[in-house]
Each structure stands twice: as structure tokens, then as C-alpha cells.
Amino acid sequence: MKNLAEFVKERRAAVNLTQKEFSERVGVALTVIRKIEQGKKNLNMKKVNLVLRMFGHELAPVESKQLKLNGKPSR
């Protein structure tokens, strides 16, 4: 499974946009794109979702009981 940084970087490159061009299309600051692609941990979820929506995706909160533990659903 790819992490967020890899996903955004690969998708942006696939559409042949620089970070600056991509940030302008998304409507976020260039620093937001840079932070995402550098794998920074403290990101604004709203801005991350603006970026992901360009690729038809979105992040949403997940309750810990919904997470899988060792490949099996936790109970």
C-alpha cells in the first residue's frame, strides 16, 4: 500500500504538472503540496482532501475498532 506522499507525487507526475502548477490547479499553497510530498505528519485534513479530490479520493476519520489488527478485523 502506498503512503500519501508517494500517491500524490506519482499522480501529480503522471499528469505532468510541477508542484507549483498543481498547487494552483488545486487552489492550495505550494507549501501544502511540498509538505504532503515530503511526508510531513502535521497536515490540514481539509487541504489534503482538496488535493486528493483531484484524483477522485478523500480521507475520512476511522474509528480504531474499524482498523484491522494483524490482517483480521478487531473486535
Which SSEs are present, and which pair or pack?
Elements: H1 4-14, H2 19-26, H3 30-37, H4 45-53, E1 68-69, E2 72-73
Antiparallel strand pairs: 1-2
Helix pairs in contact: 2-3
Structure notes:
- The structure is a single chain.
- By secondary structure, the protein is mostly helical.
- It has four helices and two strands, in the order H-H-H-H-E-E.
- Strands 1-2 form a two-stranded antiparallel sheet.
- The two termini are 23 Å apart.
- The mean pLDDT is 87.
CATH architecture of the domain at 4-53: Orthogonal Bundle
CATH class membership of the domain at 4-53: Mainly Alpha
Number of DSSP helical runs? 4
Q: Which blocks of ≥5 consecutive residues have pLDDT under 50?
A: none
Q: How would you characterize the largest beta sheet?
A: 2 strands, antiparallel
Apparent shape: globular
Element-level helix/strand string: HHHHEE
Mean pLDDT: 87
CATH fold node name of the domain at 4-53: 434 Repressor (Amino-terminal Domain)
Query: N- to C-terminal separation?
Result: 23 Å
Strand content is: 5-15%
How many DSSP E strands? 2
Offer a quick outline of the entry.
With 75 residues, the chain is mainly alpha-helical. The chain has 4 helices and 2 strands.
Q: Notable features of this structure?
A:
75 residues, 434 Repressor (Amino-terminal Domain), two-stranded antiparallel sheet
